[in-house]
Amino acid sequence: MLRHRGRVRYPDGMCRSIKTLRVLDVPATDDEIRAAALQFVRKVSGYRRPSPANESAFNAAVDEVAAASHRLLFAVTETHPARRSA
Known about the structure:
The chain contains 2 helices and 2 strands. By secondary structure, the chain is mainly α. The chain has a two-stranded antiparallel ribbon. A hairpin with a 2-residue loop joins β1 (2-4) and β2. The relative contact order is 0.17.
């Protein structure tokens, strides 16, 4: 975490709202994965809530990010145990 003009900045544009889902031996729930995907898409798109014209694309992006995250978590858990929380 860095400070710039009195405000907290996170390295490499890291979003503080997205939490690490791979901690200890407790697998992330589908709801946790979806919430992280939603936060990611909000950050990338700049929308908290998209307009009706963009809602379909926004929701599709959330679905795709959630699916990719689920695949990633499953794949890395198969080969490496989860790390311990700090």
